[in-house]
Amino acid sequence: MKKKSDDLTMLKTLCTEQSIELLPTMVEQLVRYRDYLEQWNRKINLISRKEDAPVIIKHIFHSLLITLHHKFHENEKILDLGTGGGLPGIPLAILNPHTSFVLVDATGKKIEACRDMIQQLGLHNAVAIHTRVEEMKGEKFDTVLSRQVAPLDKLCEWAGKLLKSDGVLICLKGGDLDGEIRKTLASSKDRHNFPQHIELHPIQGINPYFTEKQIVIARGKKLFP
To answer: Which domains are assigned to the chain?
Structure first.
């Protein structure tokens, strides 16, 4: 009970500091998700089992930081690409109950875990699908999210085929990304000119555990001339 109480307090404090508004029910759901994630992680590898930070910070709060740079709206269709244990899709689905989230992963056991957690949390705005991104056809999304450890140009290749013309790819990445960004922009013509613009939003100053972490936003259209 003490861990749950401490995590509730920690999450509320962190979100208040960043002006991320959470209803009490959302905080409770996020902590329950932490519990389910840890339970499933003992069965299958969803996140590192040798964490250097509390899961509530390193994975859940980290996912919520996307909202600092992207406002989710009611009719928006979101794809969480390579969701793993439901990150960042499930925390953001909790925070945005009127936005539609589709979580995909090529590993069936991970999707089984996501489906169970979505059901346990009572989320009606999220579904988990077992598929490879290369096999997804026909459906277009407003926004693609990813925490995958994959090169940015590869993420853009996958996302570009699934995004609407004005869609955005939002990645949570770490390290020096200058080379990845140059390569991605230089090869955009090979992906039907996606992306045309890439934004970097460092978050290392928000929490000591986020050293070198950044939010990367790749846009199909520039917001300005």
So the answer is: 2-219 (3.40.50.150)
* DSSP string computed for the chain: -HHHHHHHHHHHHHHHHTT----HHHHHHHHHHHHHHHHHHTTS-SS-SS-SS-HIIIIIIHHHGGGGT----TT-EEEEET-TTTTTHHHHHHH-TTSEEEEEES-HHHHHHHHHHHHHHT-SSEEEEE--GGG--S--EEEEEE---S-HHHHHHHHHTTEEEEEEEEEEEES--HHHHHHHHHTGGGGTT--SEEEEEE-TTT-GGGTTEEEEEEESS-S--
pTM of the model: 0.93
pLDDT digits over 93-143, tens only?
Answer: 999 999 999 999 999 999 999 999 999 999 999 999 999 988 998 889 999
Quick check: 217 and 199 in contact, CB under 8 A?
yes
